[in-house]
Fold Membrane protein YkvI.
Amino acid sequence: MKKSIYLAGAFVGVIVGAGFGSGQEILQFFTNFGMFSIPAILLSTVLFAFVGMQVAQLSSHLQATSHKEIITVLCGRYLGNALDIVLSFFLFGVGVIMIAGAGSIVTQQFGIPAFIGAIGMTVITVLTMLLKVERIIGIISSITPFLLVIVIVIVAYALMKNSINPDQVNQYADSTKASAANWVLSGLLYVSFNVAVGFSMLSVIGGTFKDKKQAGIGGIIGGILLGVLLLLINAGMMTDLAVIKNMDMPTLYLANMISPIVGNVLSIILLAMIYNTCVGMFYSFTVRFVPQGRYFGVSVSVVGIIGFALSFAGFTTLVNTVYPIMGYVGFMLLAAITWSWIRSVHHAPLQKSSMQIKADKFN
């Protein structure tokens, strides 16, 4: 169970970046639908748990060392190869976005020049990637409980100060600013985008497990934890939606309402979550092309330097360019994962044999 919890923490740690922790993603995908944000989050939670279980179990079964093995099994050789390349470079793009986001946060909260925050994030990311994968998983997992604690404190304070009034929530909710036309599609899109973000690192993490069941449990717990965080942050924003809907970083606003110290603590945790995602993305990208070994250290250094240089394109510009396309990639992965599960349920003996043959090709 301890290893399952490690996987769950790492799953959450990779998914939760600046947009999630700041509350902006949750505002756009969920809270803007008012009280309908709750069923949307429940839908996303079920899907996160399902995807976490499936990917973790499959990667454990194949003893995957990168996402390529999993994508080939799910999508076949030709479509799998195309998705493999596209996903690999989007991982790099998300890593660049995280470096840019680190620069934005240190400027907004602490008044430090953005390039210093970007340099610091790049250096610590490269140094972390030089560790063994098990140690990387441990580091990523260890930060998740701190986010959970600070979010509980912020939401508890917000609920004590202002209760949730459903009529007011629906009055100030603005579905025209939401990320999709309705709450069902928005819940699906949110999972789709995050599947593309977290798929590669979850594949690597699951591949370190010998026990498929243990890996699957970790994936389920991770999905449930993501849902709990979504519900908590959404509840906190509902307490003062009239003001919060106009904020760039809603949770940071709520934290500063308690105390500037709490705001600073949350900013540091947000930077830690950016670091988690940055390590996950750059590690997954690098290990796809250069296995851990003689040239891995040089490779991660080059990847970090190029990522730092590209981060000067700007946080907002990068987000608007990379994230929408990743949503479509995520839908393809989500469809492939679902189809794989349907086949395994209805044709269990055949599916197991087919997967074992493919696994043998990679091992």
